[in-house]
Amino acid sequence: MQINLLTIYPYGYNISLVNEYRSVEMIILLLITIVVVILITSMYKRYVPIKNIPCKNVEFIDSSFQILDIRAYNERKNNIKSDSVLNIPYSYLERYNKEIPMVNLHVIASDKLELNLGVRFLLGKGIKVKSYEIMDCLCNERRLEHGIR
């Protein structure tokens, strides 16, 4: 059975109902798009590695480098014997980023997630990160760790 719109609405169909339905659809689509963009951005910052930063051990770092340890205070071990080590955990980087000198940095992190977030924050502030080390990982200059060059 076919319903003729002219019999229901003798002067044409009700445009306001169609427009309200479309506006609700558009609002829902816009909200879903915003949530997806926020999730993708968050996942990118956390899990996509930063390229062109090599993995090096602390023993092979030049004296011109400043060593920045971004591990938490309770995870830190005293295995690094150097006066040039700056201990600022990742959670305090935003507060104490003015104390970090604008020289070449070697970043020490406890895992890949902390490394990615810390290095992205430092690069965003204009600080030059030239190398990194993940303490639980044995890295050398020939092997790339999780895609970071």
Q: Structural class, from helix and strand content?
A: alpha/beta
Q: How many strands, what sense, and barrel or not for the largest sheet?
A: 4 strands, parallel
Dominant shape: elongated
Gyration radius, to the nearest Å?
A: 27 Å
Q: Going across the biggest sheet, name each strand in turn.
A: 2-1-3-4
* Number of helical stretches of at least 4 residues: 4
Quick one: how many beta strands? 4
Q: From N to C, what is the helix and strand string? A: HHEEHEHE
Strand content: 5-15%
- The helix fraction, in percent, is 25-40%
Which consecutive residue ranges, at least 5 long each, have pLDDT under 50? 140-145
What distance separates the N and C termini? Answer: 67 Å
Mean pLDDT: 81
Secondary-structure blueprint:
Blueprint lengths: L4 H4 L6 H33 L18 E4 L15 E3 L5 H4 L8 E5 L2 H13 L4 E6 L15
Parallel strand pairs: 1-2, 1-3, 3-4
Structure description:
- This protein is an alpha/beta fold.
- It has helices spanning 5-8, 15-47, 93-96, 112-124, and strands spanning 66-69, 85-87, 105-109, 129-134.
- Strands 2-1-3-4 form a four-stranded parallel β-sheet, covered by helices on one side.
- Strand 3 (105-109), helix 4 and strand 4 (129-134) form a beta-alpha-beta unit.
- The chain is elongated and about 70 Å long.
- The termini are far apart.
